[in-house]
Design brief:
Shape: globular
Distance between the termini: 27 Å
Structural class: alpha+beta
Helix content: 10-25%
Number of strands: 10
Number of helices: 4
Strand order of the largest sheet: 1-4-3
Radius of gyration: 17 Å
């Protein structure tokens, strides 16, 4: 059974590599929300590099929000330190959410199978009046699902193809600048 609504997948497929597509309520309501992400920060198995922090594209030193796990490269998340950094305006950035939730894993696998592209899920919690990342261009295709809150999006159709090894490209140039204010339709 498809987790993505067929019409959302059809719209994404129709416009893939062509232009942006904005669809309100395009994905099924998930059991996931900001509270789930916040709880995940202190869950067993959560460690750096799964969770990082960023403010205006700058990251604090990893030791500022984590502690050593003897014998491992990963570092244990120190939730008290994370809370202080978030209070200072830092965004919590989660990587590979599919490793922590079966619903996300299924949706990621479905997108990957449909498009034949390596796919992963990220999650962001940004405090009000803060910015995690500066204006940038992702070097990969992006499907955004906004669960809560408000966010102003500036979407630019870039000139030429992105370098898939570039990561985030600052100050992207392109055409068709669109400003879109995303507002979650989630209810509490």
């Amino acid at each position: 059974m498809s987790m993505l609504y067929p019409t959302a997948l059809e719209h994404i497929s129709q416009h893939w590599n062509e232009r942006h597509w904005i669809g309100s309520g395009a994905l099924p309501p998930a059991q996931l929300d900001a509270e789930w992400l916040l709880r995940l920060a202190s869950a067993s198995g959560m460690h750096w590099p799964y969770l990082t922090l960023v403010k205006s594209s700058l990251q604090p030193a990893v030791k500022d929000f984590s502690t050593d796990i003897p014998g491992y490269r990963q570092r244990e998340i120190n939730t008290a330190r994370v809370e202080r950094l978030v209070a200072d305006g830092y965004t919590m950035k989660y990587q590979r959410l599919e490793d922590f939730d079966d619903t996300i894993r299924t949706e990621v696998q479905e997108l990957q199978a449909h498009f034949g592209l390596v796919t992963t899920a990220y999650g962001f919690i940004t405090p009000a009046e803060s910015r995690g990342l500066s204006f940038h261009r992702d070097a990969s295709h992006v499907v955004v699902v906004q669960l809560e809150g408000r966010k102003a999006w500036n979407i630019v159709r870039p000139f030429g193809a992105a370098d898939p090894n570039a990561g985030l490209e600052p100050d992207p140039r392109g055409e068709g600048h669109v400003r879109w204010s995303g507002v979650s339709t989630a209810t509490r």
